[in-house]
Amino acid sequence: MARYAMVVDTHRCVGCADCVMACKTENGVPLGYCRDWIVQDTWGSYPKLHLEIRSERCNHCANAPCVRCCPTAASHIVEGGIVLVSPQKCIGCKACITACPYDARYVHPDGYVDKCTFCVHRVRAGKDPACVEVCPTHCLHFGDLDDPNSVVSVLLRTRVSKTLIPEAGTRPQLYFLT
Amino acid sequence: MTSLPLVLHEEVVTSGRMNPGIDPTLTVWGWEIPFYLFLGGLVAGILFFSAFYVIRHREEDYATAVKVAPLWAPPLIVVGLLALLLDLSHWPYAWRLYTTIRWDSPMSWGAWTLGILTPLSVVWAALWLEELFPRFRWPFAWLARLITTLREWRVALAWLLAVLSVVLGIYTGILLSAFNARPFWNTSILGPLFLTSGLSTGTAMVMLLSRNRRERAHFSHLDLLLIGAELFIIIHLFMGALSSTGIKVEAAHLFLGGPYTAPFWVLVVGLGLAVPAVIEGLEVFRRRVPAAVPAALVLLGGLLLRFIVMDAGMTSRWLY
Amino acid sequence: MAKPITRREFIRISSAAVTTAALAGSGLGCRIPAFLREPPLAIPDSGVRTATWCEMCFWKCAGWVYTDGGIPQKVVGNPIDPHCRGRLCPRGTGGIGAYLDDQRLHTPLIRTEARGKQLFREASWDEALERVAQGLKQIDAKYGPGGLALFSHGSGGTWFKHLVKAMGCRNITAPSYGQCRGAREEAYTATFGEPVGSPERTDIENARCLVLIGSHLGENMHNLQVQEFANAVGNGATVIVADPRFSTAASKARWWLPIRPSTDIALLLAWIHVLLEEGLYDHDYVKRYCTGLDELRQAVRHNTPEWAYPITTIEPHTIRQTAREMARHAPATLVHPGRFTAWYGDDFQRTRANAILNALLGSWGRKGGFYNPLRASVAAYPTPAYPKGHTTWRQAPDAFPFATEVLADRVRAASIPAEGRPAPIHGWLVYCTNLPLTLLQPALTYEAIQKLDFIAAVDLMPSEITGWADVVLPECSYLERYDDLRITTTRNATIALRQPAAKPRFESKPGWWIAKGVAEKMGLGRYFPWKDIESYLETRLATIGSSLAEMQQVGVKEIDVGPHRYYFGDGEEIEFDTPSGRIELYSQQIADLGFDPVPRYTAHPEPPAGYYRLLFGRTPTHTFSRTTNNPLLCETMLENEVWIARTVAQMWGIESGDYLLLHNQDGATAGPVRAKVTERIRHDCVFLVHGFGHQQRQMARSFQRGANDNALVTQVSIDPLMGATGMRVNFVTFEVVAPPRGHAPPPLRRGEVA
Fold it and tell me: Model-level pTM?
C-alpha cells in the first residue's frame, strides 16, 4: 500500500509561483481561487536576515481533521493517503473548511468544497502532480514513502525536514527540507 | 522614538492567495449558523425542562414549561433547520446527511439528532394539545388512540427527549471545540457553555410565557443558577486559554484588548448575564420585578454569545 | 479623408468603444468559462496538442499547448527544448491567460473626432491597413524613408522590421538596447571582443562560485538561468550577492553584501585590487590571453577594501573574504554580467569592471564561467534586396562611439524638433512595446507623439501606447498564430516552430498577416512573395532538410553545426576580436577616445534628506506591463508594493498596508501604492516592481493599480560611451494617503516580534 508524500526543498524554491499557475491550468481552478500558494518566511533584523520560501498546499494529512468531521463522507481518503472530496456527496456545510488548520480548502463557485488533490488523476496514470512536473527549480518532489528508494524517502532520510503545525496532530504529508 | 525589534519574524503569502470566504479570515459561516445555534440551544432548553418536569411528575406545577413551551419547539427547530439549509452551499445534496452516520463527525450527530428530535418534538407538543385547547379534538380516531397511548408512555418519552435535548444543546459546542484549527474554540468547555446557555434561554422562554407567578419565580431561580454556572464557565474558558499554548493565548487576547472585548464583556457578560442575574437575585429577595426583563436580556445575550463566539472563532487561525 | 487631428489626446479605450464578447469579465470575480471549470481531464495530458514557443518574455521557451474543443487549456514545456528543459516559467504556464483575456483589443481602431472629443471608432481590416499604408507612404513621400521609425519588441516584430526595411528605413529600435542590456554588451565587446548575448552564455549550473551584483535571479525569471541557479545552489555552489535589497537570490547566498546603491564600481575595483595584490588571479590565463595587466594594477593600486568601505559600506574583511572565495573556485567562478545594466550613467565602465574581474578569474570561455555559444542560421526566404538605406544615427556627428544599435530615446529625440533643427522623424510604427511605461522620461514620449504626422500601434492588449495611436491594429496572441522560426543558440543550436493552437479571437490577426497586408497596399508586396505563412515556413525548413510536418510533430529540432568546443582547450591559442587580439584589461581604444581605459569610481549624487533612491525590478510572475492584466497571472500580484526599510517606515509612521503617493525630486508623482515595510532593504532606497500603474480603463484588472515607476524616471544619466540611459538616479519621498477605493487586499501575513 503506497503512502504518498510531497517534499519541498526550500533551498531551491525561489517562490516563482509556477506551481500555482500549473495547478490552475491543469485542474481548471476558478479565477480568484488557488489550491497552492507561496509563503516567504523572513526572520532576523537587518542586515542579519534569513528567508525561507515555501510552496504550500493541502497537506493530505494522515490524521485528517477534515475527513473526520465530514458528515457525509464526501471528504475521504483514497489509495496512497490522498484526501479527496466527492462533489456529489458534498453538501457544502463547510465543517471541513473550518477544521483545516492550514486553511487549504475553499468553496468552489459550483457549491462543493475543493482543494488540492495531489493531481490524483495524474498520479493514477503514473505521472507527477502538475506542480511537481512544472517546477523550474526542481524543488518539488512527490513519491511513495513506503518505497525506501523513492526520491521522497531518500530526501527525508538525508536532509533535515519539518512539517507545518505538527502540534495540531494532523500528521501532514507535505514536508519541507530546511 | 520607539525601540526597534530585536528579531522580527514575518510570514507573507506572496502569490496573491485570497480565496473567497477563507482569506483574510474565515467568513464561510454567516449569520445562519449562530442563529441556528441559538435556536438549537433554546429548543434544547425548552424540551429539556419540559421532559425533566414530566419525569419529576410536576406537570401541573409547571404547566407552561411542560405543556406550553414545547409548542414553540417544532417551529423554532424548523426555522433553525431552514437557516442551516440556507447556509449549505451545495444544498441539493443535503439528503446525503442521512445516507450515513459518521461517528467522528459532530455534524453527523447533529443531523441525526435533529432528524429524530424534530418529529419527536412534534409528537411531544401534540401530546398536550387537547389539554391546552379544550375544544380541539384529533380528526382521526386512530390518531386520538395513538396520542392517548403515547401519553401513557410519556415518562419514557420524556427520558428520550431529555437525553436528546442535552445532546442537541451540547453537540454544537462540541462540534466547534473539536476544530483545533480554530484556536479560540478549541476548548472542551465550549460544549458545557453552550448547553448551559441553551438551558438558560429555555428557562427565559418559560419565564416569558408563563402566567403563573410561582412558576416564573422558580424558573427565575433556576436561571440564576444557570447564569452563575455560565459565568464560572466563561472565566474558566479564559483561564484555560491564557495558560495554554501561544496560539490559544493569542486567541484569548481577542477578548482581552482585542476587537471582541467590548461587545463580549459589555453586551454578553454584562447585559446578557450579569444584569439579568442581578434582577433575578432581587427576585430571590422577594422584590417584585417584571420577569420579562431578565428573560428578554437572557435571550438577547444568548443570541449575541453565539454570534460573537462564532465570529471570534473564525477569526482565530494558526497560519496566515 | 478625415480632417487631420492636430493634437493627439490619450484615448482611454473602454468597453463603450469596443464590443464586449460574451466572455467579458472585469475585476477580481472574473470566472473562467464553464468549459474550463469541468473536473480535470480524466486522462492527463490528453487532447490535441500543438507546438509553440512562448512569447511571455524574450526567453522563447518551446512548449506544447493542450486544447479542448479549440480552446487552449494549458501549456507545458517541450522536454527536448534546451531553453526550458520541459519546464515553463510561471508566465509561460499562465500564458493561456493572454488568450482568455477578454479585455484585449478586439478590432482595428481608427482615431477620429466627435463633438470636440477624440475617440476611436472600429474599422474593418481593409480600412485600417489602408490607413496605415497611406500614413507610411505619406511619410516616405514627404521626408523619405528616414522619416519613419519602428519601435519593436517581441518576436512578431520580424515582419514589421522586414516591412520598414523594404521601405528603405533603417530606424529600427528596441528600448531594451539603451535601457537594459546595451551597456553590458558593448563593455564585454570592448573587453573580450564579443558580447554576452541573449540568452546569456553564462555557465551558471557548472559554477562553483556565483557572484550576483545587481542581478536578482529568482525574481528575474529567465527560465534556464533560474533552473541553472537552483542547480548550482543545490550542488553547494557559493553564492555571493551584492544588492541593496535582500532579494530571493541573496537569501540563498553565503554572503549578502548590502551595498550602498551607485557604488558598485568601487566594490568591483576593490575585488580586482585584492586579486592582484594577493596574487589570486589566474596567472596562466592572464598571461596567455590578456593584455594590460600592469596598467590595470597601476590603475587600481589605491582601490583597497579600506578605501571601498566608506563608499560601499561593505566591511573590508568581507571584501577580502569574498574575493578570496571567488579565487578559490576559479575558473568556475562566474561574476554574472547582469542584464538590466542602465543604472547611473557610468554603466559601460561598471560592466567593464565586471568583465575585467571575470578575466582575472579566468572564467571567460571556461567551465563554470562563460561558455562559447553555438552559432546557427537558417537560410532566409528569398526576397528582393532592400533599398539603400538613408543617413542614420551611425553617421550622426554626436553618435556614441561604442553604440552598435539604435538607441530608442535618441529616436524619440529625433522626433521632436529643436531650436534650429527640424526633426528628421515624423512617423512611428510601434510593435508590442508599451512606450509610455517603458521609455524613461515619459513626458518626452508624449511630446514626441504630439509632433508626429502619423503613429500606428500593433499590440495584443490596449496598452497605453495604443491610446496615443492614429491606428490601432490588434494582433492575436502567440497561441493563435504562426510566426517565423525560432533560431537560437544556447548550448545547443535549435529551431522551434510556433503554430496556432486556436483561431484568433475577435478580429485579431497574426503579425505576418498585418505586415503583409500593409506591404501589399503600399506596393511592396514583392517583399512578401510567399502565398501564406505555411509556404514561407516550408521553404525555410526545406533548406535544412526539415518540413512543417516534421516540426509540427517535434516542436523543436536540433541543428547540427558540427564539432564545437564549449570551453577553451588547455593552452589553446585564441584570437579575440579586440584591437589587440587579446582580452583587454586595459583598453587603448577607450583611452584614445578620451575615456578611462580602466574603469574608475566616481561618486554619484546621493538622495537629499527625506528622499530615497528609487530602485525597480522584476517579480517572477510578471513580464512588466505585458502581463499585469493577464487574468491568471494578475492574481499573484494585482498591485506592486513599495519596499521601505523598517527604520525608515517607523520614522514616517508608515505601516505595511498603508497607501502612499511617491513624489520624486522633480515633483513627478506615482501611486497610490501600498507600502511593504520590511527588514529586507537598506535605509537609503526603496524598491518597486516595474510595470504597474496602468491608465487604460479597458484593462480593468490592472487599471490604476499600483505605482508606475516609469513616471518617476524624470532624470536620466546618459552613458557617454554608448548612450545607455541610466535610470536609477531618481529619488522619491512619501505622502501617506487614504487607500484608494477598490484597492487589492493586502497580502496574507503573520508576523511577530521577539
Answer: 0.94
